[in-house]
Amino acid sequence: MSKPNEPLQRTRATKRLDLAAIDNLTLEHVRCECPILGAWKDGLIVDFNGESRAVGKSALYHNLYPKAAVLETGPPLQIQTRRVDMKARSLGWLMDTLQGHPHLYLMGELWIDAGKQPLVEDLERYHPIAWSGDQIRLHYARPSDLAAYRRLVAIRGEIVIQGWGEGGEGLASLPLEAKPGRVELPRGLRGLF
Question: Which region, left, alpha or beta, applies to residue 33 given φ > 0 means left and ψ of -120 to 50 means alpha?
Fold first, then answer.
């Protein structure tokens, strides 16, 4: 078992889906050769035009309804994973730290200040970020997906960062083990917290 912040490396074959589908929201006919990221509710999660989308037969749970699909297997792809303790860290810090790394996906659960209200979105279909009450769940989210949530700070929780690449771009070079800095409260607010 790997320690927190220690990269874990493995190799798997590249898998792509040659897909002709219908977008369940817009009813647009789409076509792509989409890399497969994972599984979701009896379907697959694919990278569709730079966004994580679910493909499957359920209009309730999937973004894309497949009309025709062919699974293609390619050369080996190096995958690295790294766990990050998010306690007292903002999603903005994570987004800024991972900026410039195009093939990263985030998974995990974070608990945040329950006094804030979540953005109301389509709760049934697949979204890489799900916010419910005091919990945020990331499932194949990209760092850029965090933009609307960047001010949220985790009370507790852990994120697993997964990096993909043929050359094995290293996650070890990312400054993820540094502890959050200490914040000094202004004198007038010290007795309130």
Answer: beta
CA distances from 6 to 62, 86, 128 (A): 34, 15, 24
How many angstroms separate the Cα of 14 from the Cα of each of 7, 58, 176? 20, 26, 27
Query: Could you read off the pLDDT tens digit of each residue along the chain, which spans 193 residues?
Result: 445 555 555 556 568 889 999 998 889 999 999 988 888 888 999 989 888 899 999 888 899 999 999 988 877 777 788 899 999 899 999 999 888 776 789 999 999 876 655 555 555 578 899 888 889 999 999 898 899 888 888 999 999 998 876 554 566 666 676 555 554 555 655 555 4
Pick from 168, 127, 154, 155: which is nearest to 40 by CA? 127
